[in-house]
Amino acid sequence: MSAGNNSQNTFKALVGEDVGPTQHIETADLESLSTTKVIVDQNYIDLQRFVDDELYRQAPDGHSNAAEPTYTCDPSEAELFLLNVKAAIHNFISALYSFHECIENRLDQYIPNGHQVTEDDLIGNGPASEYAYRAGFLVGLRTDAQHYGFSCLQAEPDTVTPDQITYRITFDESTFRQQIGGYDRFLHRNANHRNDILSFIGSFHQTAFNTFWEDTKDWLNVTQDDIEAAISLPDWQRGGSRP
């Protein structure tokens, strides 16, 4: 999906196809927005460090995740390792939540009255948006983490030897539905893809999130040079590079 194609712009899907910004974004607001985006990226990198191979690899269809992310540890360290993996997942989702809050609070003044982007819009309960449907699921996981300690995430052994165990992180939808009130607002049309949590996060970040960010920049008429003038980017992000 091209960020420059207005008919497919994922930010425009939230505010309206014919709606543009009321003014150019101020440096302080661009700094806040860009910083929250970089924090999402950094937490993705931190989660990647626990995975044996990679969180995402583009499939031949150009959309699916061909990677099957797992993590491996010594059997004696399995409980602690799972705790650390869950902490990394939580940090990524919390960073995403902060990014959404920044969009709501910092971009409000640039969006014409009647078109403001709300929390519901960003989790799929407003205008139709594939990004929001997928982000909404992750926000639902954050709710479970806050109140039930990720009760819906399970470590499923994939390969077991005397010296190590390889796990996948799977989503227990039945437990999620039992624990979370109003769960339907988090479970949209991604049922076939959300069972493997690490794969879901990899695909979400590398496709939906990155596209949404590029489309948001496009809507704001912001360039990479504008961002690099507003904040000090990590070396790996200069020039628009991605993790």
UniProtKB/TrEMBL annotation:
Source domain of life: Archaea
UniProt name for this protein: Uncharacterized protein
